[in-house]
Specification:
Two copies of one chain form a homodimer. By secondary structure, chain A is an alpha+beta fold. Chain A has two domains: 5-116, Aminotransferase class 4, branched-chain amino acid transferase, N-terminal domain (D-amino Acid Aminotransferase, Chain A, domain 1), CATH 3.30.470; 128-276, D-amino Acid Aminotransferase, subunit A, domain 2 (D-amino Acid Aminotransferase, Chain A, domain 2, Alpha-Beta Barrel), CATH 3.20.10.10. Helix content of chain A is 27%, strand content 30%. Chain A contains eight helices and 17 strands. Chain A has helices at residues 25-29, 47-60, 69-83, 148-152, 154-159, 201-207, 223-227, 259-276, and strands at 5-8, 11-14, 19-21, 32-40, 43-44, 88-95, 110-116, 128-134, 164-169, 172-173, 175-176, 179-184, 189-192, 215-218, 231-236, 240-247, 250-251. In chain A, the strands form two sheets. In chain A, strands 8, 9, 10, 11, 12, 13, 14, 15, 16 and 17 form a ten-stranded mixed sheet that branches. A six-stranded antiparallel sheet of chain A has the order 2-1-7-6-4-5. In chain A, a hairpin with a 2-residue loop joins strand 16 (240-247) and strand 17 (250-251). The radius of gyration of chain A is 19 Å and the shape is globular. The two termini of chain A are 29 Å apart. Chains A and B meet through strand 3, helix 1, strand 6 and helix 4 of A and strand 3, helix 1, strand 6 and helix 4 of B.
Chain lengths: 277, 277
């Protein structure tokens, strides 16, 4: 990590000193939530969506944020000024706190970090390859700290010559560990899983995009529909819309970024450029 | 936590200062393993079983312990001497390490803590009540840090007037978050789930107990068999054998510690007393 300021429980500390006591429930029991957004040219992108999800995650996991949304925004403003990194990622983590018995929820610890992040506002036409794996994320509508399966699968993903993993469960396609997954079918429908997935902020904003040539919908779809997809892509805060050109070693469409994917990416990036002003 | 020494990465530090940098993969992604055993009168109980499982967990999760079993035992000896707490619990935690990108496995961090723990070597005849909940632990044969569901369910357990939760999945009974679960049936069979559960050290030692009046076996069993159980109990390092007297508000057997449960508890406690010498 770079040397810059980290916010921990009402204090700014240098990142080299930023630590939590080992009684914290993230270290003891993997318990906590986070959210992750970016700034471009000092402007936070989709901040309201991220904060809304952060408070939803905290509430669902019985964690008290301890600040109103306005107070949290002030802290973020202060951090941005102190660090002065215009193009950056910001992660707000809320853990289960210092548990005296190593098990019971205590006053949450909040940690806010900022890292340089430079993104090109254009589509990567090369795309990526995915490999599927059967897994259902637990408490899937919450952005928890649980990436046990994702990190455990890293050697498997590498062995399979893929860039990331796509989870499926009970025959239905779900999501990637850090991104949502979309297909385009022969009816010009753009589809992403509806149930038991994390509702990503880019996913939400892609679902709102309008174009005369296709419609974007959320509904569950199965492995057969994936097989027949004409295009596929993932969405995430750092990837925006990134084409998926192959799954399990089999090419999707013509193995390049599809035309619907490109049009959606253009619309999304327009939206983001608008926020930068 | 008490003020005593904690071992972190080749150093002993006072527990009040024992911390990990926030880039650790337990804080970032909930990634790590641990094991937990006890000493009575300064004697570690079932130590070989715990160390065997710890190395199994580390290996499965792509984590290098960094010490041989003999080296780890020397460190444990030194910690026991430094802290001088004859009746204690010891927890060895191994995390995914300080990840520069917050995602990729690095050199693991090892943390060993010791806490006072005073156990009575006799059965608790009062027993406990459980409530069932559908859940399958991920990577279930590994003692990971993942207790997301367990801690999330604490308010539910309390609302239901229960002491702990019993997981089931696909119609089969599994385990409790920190203990294995056994039933006794009308044929004097003592049964614990075979697949997709953590293989507890007390569970393993109970499976080895011999008695002319009953046999102890591992095989999967369903909710119907649970309904018809004449006795039930849980096993864990801190509970040994603890009777379960009710599930989902319905009494098991006569609502007291059963005779088979008591006989098994006697045999187990004999074994433990033998280790204390």
């Amino acid at each position: 990590m770079n040397l810059n300021y980290v916010y921990i429980n009402d204090t700014f500390v240098e990142s080299a000193q930023a630590s939590l006591l080992i009684s914290d429930l993230s270290i003891q029991r993997g318990y906590g939530i986070f959210d992750f957004f970016k700034t471009i040219n000092g402007k936070p992108i989709f901040l309201e969506d991220h904060l809304e999800r952060f408070y939803h995650s905290a509430n669902k996991m019985h964690l008290d944020v301890g600040y109103t949304k306005e107070q949290l925004k002030s802290i973020l403003d202060e951090l941005l000024v102190k660090n002065n990194i215009p193009d950056a990622s910001i992660r707000i983590t809320l853990t289960g706190g210092y548990a005296t018995d190593g098990y019971t929820l205590a006053k949450p610890n909040m940690v806010i970090t900022q890292q340089p992040l430079s993104l090109k506002l254009e589509i990567d036409p090369k795309g990526i390859n995915l490999v599927t794996y059967p897994h259902q994320r637990q408490l899937s509508d919450v952005k928890t700290l649980d990436y046990l399966m994702a990190i455990w699968l890293q050697p498997f993903i590498k062995e399979q010559g893929a860039d990331d993993v796509l989870y499926h469960a009970d025959g239905l396609i779900k999501e990637c560990p850090r991104s949502n997954f979309f297909i385009v079918n022969g009816n010009n429908e753009v589809i992403t899983a509806q149930n038991h997935v994390l509702k990503g902020v880019i996913r939400k904003n892609v679902l709102q995009l309008k174009h005369p040539d296709f419609k974007v919908i959320e509904r569950d779809f199965n492995l057969q529909e994936l097989e027949n997809a004409t295009e596929a892509f993932i969405t995430s805060t750092t990837k925006h819309i990134l084409p998926v050109v192959g799954i399990n070693g089999k090419q999707i469409g013509n193995g390049k970024a599809g035309s619907v994917t490109k049009k959606l990416s253009d619309l999304l990036l327009q939206n983001i450029r608008h926020q930068i002003g």
